[in-house]
Amino acid sequence: MRSLLFVPGDSPRKLEKGLASGADALIVDLEDSVAPDRKAEARKTTLGFLQERTKAPRHPVLVVRVNGLETGLIDADLEAVIGGRPDAILLPKAEGGGSVIHLAAKLSVREALCGLPDGGIKIVPIATETATALFAAGSYAGASPRLSALTWGAEDLSVELGTETNRGADGRFTQPFQFARTLCVAAAAAAKVQALDTVFVDFRDDDGLKREAEEARRDGFTGKMAIHPAQVPIINAVFTPSPAAIAKAHAVIAAFAATPGVGVIGIDGLMYDRPHLERAKLTLARAKQAGSA
To answer: pLDDT tens, 90-145?
Structure first.
């Protein structure tokens, strides 16, 4: 997944608009974008949307952001939407592998009650929204086969830490949030799952979004969440390997194939070793997934 677009779960109009955005995934939100007195209606709307879209031969990955484990709302969320067969659940305020195990148990019960295959619905935790979560980032590896990606959040963490802001005058994250971002990408690598960058909240600043997405890609993230459909094309472009990157990957793979057994090769005066070969394979895999290989 390169782009994941948040859409309020109580707005049929915005859900339909999200389908036309080109996002690889839609995050149907039952949490922050839905007022408390709209939760029940949002669950009904979300279920209807899931049931309709999962019948289609092609559709984006469908993810539902539920309310957190500590809110007392998550069981009603799951009871309402699991019958619609979402592809994944986005878990806010996750605090390490224990949170994943907890949610996985709830999902197994709901899947059984709905006659769905056990383990079919994946889990994507938001791994940095509380202070406790920062200390548990290394515990996701091996927590559950349902774990499919990790992402991070800065807004709730800002409240938790009591910071005045989470971005500096240059628009970049301040040090506590850079630290949380690094923990997320490292935790995802340790768990061998996709790392997804957080949202860029100024949806009118295309240049800022592009810069932040490029920096995220540079640092190991393979996708980014969006809060507005206009952000999706920029994110997709940044996280789709360029023709130059694809050509370089092919050259590295071909050079190693031509000299089997060697650990280091030279291409145009530069040395490449086995980690470069693995990186080249990942580049081509991502290009294929994006339809550009």
So the answer is: 999 999 999 999 999 999 999 999 999 999 999 999 999 999 999 999 999 999 99
**124 and 259 share one domain:** no
Which sign does the torsion angle of CA 130, 134, 139, 140 carry?
Answer: positive
Is residue 269 domain-shared with residue 210, that is, in the same domain? Answer: no
> What is each CA distance from 60 to 4, 54, 77, 139, 247, in whole angstroms?
9, 9, 21, 29, 28
- Rounded to whole angstroms, how far apart are CA atoms 189 and 17? 33
Distances (CA, A) of 110 to 106, 140, 143, 159, 211: 6, 22, 19, 33, 41
Look up the pTM and report it. Answer: 0.91
Domain of 280? 243-289
Domain count, the chain: 2
Q: Where are the beta strands (DSSP E) in 126-250?
A: 149-151, 194-197, 223-226
